[in-house]
Amino acid sequence: MEVKVLNLSGQETGAKVQLPESVFAVEPNDHAIYLDVKQYLANQRQGTHKSKQRNEIAGSTRKLHKQKGTGGARAGSIKSPLFNGGGRVFGPQPRDYSFKLNKKLKQLARKSALSYKAAENNIVVLDAVDFSDAKTKNYASLVAALNVATEKTLLVLPAQNNNVYLSSRNLKKAKVVTADQLNTFDVLNATKLLLTTDSVKTLEEALAK
């Protein structure tokens, strides 16, 4: 699949880049995508939720009233889950939500997500992206020139570029990652995928195995 290469002004440079079929034209595997996104979201969870059981509640240990003769139910402790302020039965406890996925499955999921974007013509390829300074207006001008200012965009760079990253940070619908940080969730969450010619090569080297 050939895509025209644009410059930072949104104009065609006359060059074209070939998106490798082994990465951008595979048969999508929806279940692999589901597992990879599920793992990504699970890894975002802190898992620090905690409720107190009856043995952790601060309170008196005296028996509330005598066992028989009151006409009410037997009660042994104010900490019982039956009373307000008592412990919670089977409440949440701290836990780790992360789980393991095979490397090949994660690669298949990323290739499937990229193939969906390519099939929908939602991939824009730029010759290079670099700013002389870190200013939000630089990135705002870029997405405006590409007519994607109102859409969620994901810019994939071949290597870390602080000026580009810092310029995008204040924009709600913009995200910048490097090719080695690319994940399935970010690809699917973005409406438009912005690549550079170098990041296409980097993705091919990493995923076309």
UniProtKB/TrEMBL annotation:
Gene3D superfamilies: 3.40.1370.10. It holds the Pfam family Ribosomal_L4. The gene is rplD. Keywords: Ribonucleoprotein, Ribosomal protein, RNA-binding, rRNA-binding. HAMAP family: Ribosomal_uL4_B. GO terms for molecular function: rRNA binding; structural constituent of ribosome. This is Large ribosomal subunit protein uL4. One of its GO terms (biological process) is translation. Belongs to the universal ribosomal protein uL4 family. Part of the 50S ribosomal subunit. InterPro entries: Ribosomal_uL4 (IPR002136), Ribosomal_uL4-like (IPR013005), Ribosomal_uL4_dom_sf (IPR023574). Residues 45-77 are annotated as: Disordered. GO terms for cellular component: ribonucleoprotein complex; ribosome.
